Amino acid sequence: MAFEQIEECETCGTFQRVQFTGRGQKAYCVECGSMILRSADGTIRAAQAWSLAGLFLFFPAMSFPVMRMELWNDTRENTIWSGVRELSEAGMPTIAVVVLFTSIIIPLLKIVGMLVVTMSYRSDRGKLFKTYLFEFIHRTGHWSFLDIFLVVILIALLQIRDMAYAAPEIGLAFFTAMVVCTMFASMAFNTKAIWRCYERV
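and the corresponding structure tokens:
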């Protein structure tokens, strides 16, 4: 299906009528030769790849310990889930719920949501829903590193106060990598692909 509309070149500012037939095509400015439109296929594949990488990293991020703490000859290694459980048992259910949502539920929903959007973007069904879903994923990305900062600050505070020895573990590296993958997946995708299968450069 061909699309014809007026587009502005972001390089020279020239307005021009562009006819774009979609998959595999590119449109260039008649004045400066800069690319104005391009097929969304490449960025869709990139978003899918980043989302799948995030999904694979999610499981070790949840399974491996994120922090090791030594207090009075007692050594503990906590995963994200065990940290949630201990916070709840320690009488801090509100914080436990916050950590549960920000560290487990929301990251998983973001990954699954990106996979749903990128794998069904050519379907005419639910275009508005997929657009809103992506906007939600993209906006929550601003809070992606909150949990990592909390772990680092907690480790620093414990050691400054000589309360305990705390150190990050491999799970934190997996979690960080998972967050980065979800951010790159969101950055690679453009909602124009849902509606017209091409994106503005």
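(Above: one complete record from the training split.) DSSP finds seven helices and eight strands in the chain.
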